[in-house]
Amino acid sequence: MSCTIRLDIDTWVGLTQGLTKWLDLAAQLEIVSTIALSLGPYKTGRGNLLRILNPKAPRSSKSILPWKRTHWRDLFRGILTPVKYASSENEIINIIKSASKKHEIIPHGFDHTYWSHKFTGLSKNETLGLLDDMVKEYQEILGKKPNACAAPAMQVNPYYWSELEKLQFSYSSDVIGKKPFFAQSRSESKQNKLLQVPITCNFMDSLLAKGYSKKAIIEHYISEIKEQVLNNNYSCWVIHANFEPMRYDSILKEVIKVLKKEIVFETLTEQVNRFITKKAI
């Protein structure tokens, strides 16, 4: 029985501080994870401004207030604080390369703010351009092509999955669901060969917004993940580098310690390989 923790990095403080905290915690608990790394410009402040100006912008309907989950520098990143790039900082590149020796690293799109707000309406050429930029920067940092992607804010469009298939990606992780499946967009006449490995667990900020106590959150995740693994032999718990490892590491530690007694923590690729092997038998 296995579970994956997917660490999403979509803010600069999450990249420069939260990632290291997660790597230290994972090493202490002796587990692996899949790290979804945002590529392109980090400009989260512009995203916050767009959400204020556009009521229809992607957001969680049941989430805590932004300043309770995001560092003030990232609240204004790209407005009052400078835009940053992972590939322009040697120290960050070295941390990412070091992390890749133990953990799986996949792209979390390119230009998280732009993707979150515009991707669903992009043309095929615009989609290809964004994916090309994503692959190039990933190669620049890690020296190899990516084999998977996790779409920012779960925003996809009619061209996305088929283009990832053409890039020979093994999987993408873009939706909420119960277990892996082969995706098909409404505009496509046939099912893609690209495996979709969904998020299965509630987001912690949503639980906090509902008034869950620390104890209740711990109990929720232990119960939720055990049930998912028992029923589907699959679970994907998404956490964010700027939030859980930096503010609620004690919850992560307690949940993982309990689950480790019965469940193996794997990367998403390990879960995908097992799923494909089972299908082939």
What does this structure look like?
The model has no long low-confidence stretch (mean pLDDT 88). The protein has a single domain (2-280), classed as TIM Barrel. Strands 1, 2, 5, 10 and 11 form a five-stranded parallel beta sheet that branches. The protein is 46% helix and 14% strand. With 281 residues, it is an alpha/beta fold.
The DSSP helix count reads: 12
CATH topology: TIM Barrel
CATH superfamily: Glycoside hydrolase/deacetylase
Low-confidence stretches: none
Radius of gyration: 18 Å
At the first level of CATH, the class is Alpha Beta
Order of helices and strands: EHEEHHEHEHHEHEEEHHEHHEH
Give the overall average pLDDT.
88
Provide the helix percentage: 40-55%
How many E strands? 11
What quaternary form is this? single chain
Domain module count: 1
Q: What is the CATH-assigned architecture?
A: Alpha-Beta Barrel
Taking the sheet with the most strands, its summary is: 5 strands, parallel
Structural class: alpha/beta
Q: What fraction of residues sit in β-strands?
A: 5-15%
Distance between the termini: 19 Å
Label the overall shape: globular
